[in-house]
Amino acid sequence: MANARKDMAETASSRSHVYGLLAAIFRAEPSAAFLAQMKSSEFSNVLKSLDISLGDDFQDTPCDQLAEGLAVEFTRLFIGPGPHISPHESMNIEFENPMEATLWGPQTVKVKKFIEAAGLEYGDSFDGMPDHVSAELEFMQRLATKEAEAWEEPNEEFATNILKIEERFLDEHLSRWISRFCDKVIATSEGPFYREFAEVTKGFLEYEGESLQAFNASAGNGKGDSG
């Protein structure tokens, strides 16, 4: 039914926006311009809908000053040089053989092959690792965008195939490590910014996994077909 396809398209588009925001948060330290955008009333409503509260200090502190402080926090949390949290799947999965936990090891290659098999390529400017949290979240963002477009065309078969790919990637990759990663960020963050976004990331992906599993199970039983 047309209304059902429209609802699915809107849902996929909204999910894509959330994935895009979370990818941006963990990709690099936020710029003053990005922080200014986050302070806008429109963006504030988005944060409120995600139950993200960054506190009065976030709104009251000049963006340049915020950017400097968050750059220090981002470096401390994810880069080092001291003890830090690796933002890579390969360093957060529990392997039977600890020697497998290595950057650009077998797990990183698995992620790279999955993304390429889905027909998506890395941009020329991409110089990170495929299993970086921002790269995996961006992959889901791009899938959700394609899903929304497929519902709108409409091409229901293609849309449901993308939903299956989304569920597989969550099941085989993101869901295996994101909760552990987020818990580390929550425990280590000194301010609310990364702690709040880690909590939302954890909850959002848990909900995503349940929702995608339920939809694909329903579609597999023929309940997701519509004319």
List the helices and strands and how they pair.
Blueprint (H helix, E strand, L loop, with lengths): L1 H26 L4 H7 L2 H9 L6 H5 L2 H16 L27 H12 L15 H20 L3 H33 L3 H29 L7
Helix pairs in contact: 1-7, 2-5, 7-8, 8-9
Radius of gyration: 18 Å
Number of contiguous helices: 9
Terminal CA distance reads 5 Å
CATH homologous superfamily label: TorD-like
The helix-strand sequence is: HHHHHHHHH
The number of distinct β-strands equals 0
> Helix content range of the residues, please?
55-70%
Quote the average pLDDT.
Answer: 89
Largest sheet: number of strands, sense, barrel closure: none
The total tally of domains equals: 1
Low-confidence stretches: 223-227
Report the principal-axis shape.
Answer: globular
CATH class: Mainly Alpha
In percent terms, what proportion of residues is strand? under 5%
Q: Please name the CATH topology.
A: TorD-like
CATH architecture descriptor: Orthogonal Bundle
Structural class: mainly alpha
